[in-house]
TrEMBL record:
Provenance organism: human gut metagenome
The name this protein goes by in its record: Citrate (Si)-synthase
Gene3D superfamilies: Citrate Synthase, domain 1
Any coiled-coil regions, as ranges: none
Pfam families the record matches: Citrate_synt
InterPro entries, per the entry: Citrate_synth-like_lrg_a-sub, Citrate_synthase, Citrate_synthase_sf
Amino acid sequence: MGEYAAIEKEAKLFTELCVHNDAIDPNLFDEFGVKRGLRDKDGNGVLAGITNISRIDAFEMRDGVKTPCDGKLWYRGYNVYDLIRGLRGKRYGFEEVAYLLLLGDLPNEQQLHEFTDCLTKCRALPSNFVRTLS
């Protein structure tokens, strides 16, 4: 049995969710002139990308005029400030946000437990780890 056989089922499910929730309509690349690699046809670096994971609002429309604002960062449709406020006092803030970023939505209690359990199984250190550091 392989080292990660215990989490194979969960890993497959998480992989499928990641692929499903991160799919980008290929037509959007042409519509917005976004390059798919690190360079454009002339070898210049890519300046923008399309993602459904995060969004930055640097401008607001005020009286029909595009105006710079303080900026807002969004992860999967959630304002980062709201995420931080919601995680105060909770033990698994990292795991909740990782789940959100990877799988597309905040986990319910059972999903968080399963995800955290899966991550915990992957954290085991090799038995000779302490000797290696000595």
